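Subject: Sanity check before I submit

Could someone independently write out the structure tokens for this chain? I want to compare against mine line by line before I put it in a report. The sequence has 351 residues.
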Amino acid sequence: MESPADRIRASARRIGFDAVALGPLGSGEDGRRLLDWLRDGLGADLDYMAEAPEARADPRVRFPWARGVVAVALHHDPGSTPGTEPARERGPGAFVARYARGADYHRVLEGRLKRLRDAVVRAGGPGTRAWWAADHAPVLDRALARDAGLGFFGKNTMLIRPRAGSYFVLGEVLTSLDLPAAPAPAGSCGTCTRCLEVCPTRAFPAPFRLDAGRCVSYLTIENRGPIPEELRPGVGTMVFGCDLCQEVCPWNRFARPASARDLRPRALAADPDLLALAALDEAGWRRAFSGSAVLRAGWSGWRRNLAVALGNSGDAAALPALRRLASCGDPLVEEHARWGIMRVDSHHACQ
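---
Independent answer below. Compare away.
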């Protein structure tokens, strides 16, 4: 006779998830690490992480009925292997994080997770409760997925799936069902430290520990203020997010392309030309990235990022765009554009 767990796994596959794992809620050890991380000041100004941290650390504070978790993953496109991109005949290249090159994954996951929640309730029968989340709720998504057996934590704090890497997005369903414990995933980082060494802003004070205030993804997305001047060179030409610690991860040689059509990359985001991006006005930017997570940066943050990237390109062709940004009327953008102009000028002065 098919068990509720078997029915849930089969439903997740029919709905279209690339991976599914389930098990009991964990011990709360990761919650204690969260509290330590916040106390050590490594959360930058991610104020939402400090709101009711005990409830974020242990979902049972908010959902006392929760006993088990169903964790699911959808692959997003891993892009080309570093060093294999075709030679450019245009302006300097920009970089958009791989997960953001298609539609906003929150929207892609939402419909699927609602269907999975309903399937969990059907599998459990009368009285079963369930609640879904996709990186927009006060829970530790990666810890829940690890506890369910979906993967293991890498030294870069990413969840890694053996034989699949880390280029995927996560969702979960909490349930009142008692679900069987999952076997520990086979895999680890071993002695590898490539991810820690490649970080251009030194955002990893130790393995498995991230200083959000130094992370390029935080600096170019969540951060609403200025990018600290000493960190700007490390941002390079990354205009939205950073995948460097994943690019060098040996496990990502097994990365798989996106199965969900909406998560497949758009041409503009997959291979962006920095000068073409800088030529977009606000309406053009919103049209170009409609339905994309890129809009989360906001117009002001996006132009701030462009100014830093244009400066780091060292390309004299970036100067007209930088001068436009330096007189755009937004003090945040203008300051970064002036820095970018000095950066380009100093690059050419040293040649």
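---
OP: Matches mine. For the report I'm noting this point. The chain is about 40% helix and 10% strand.
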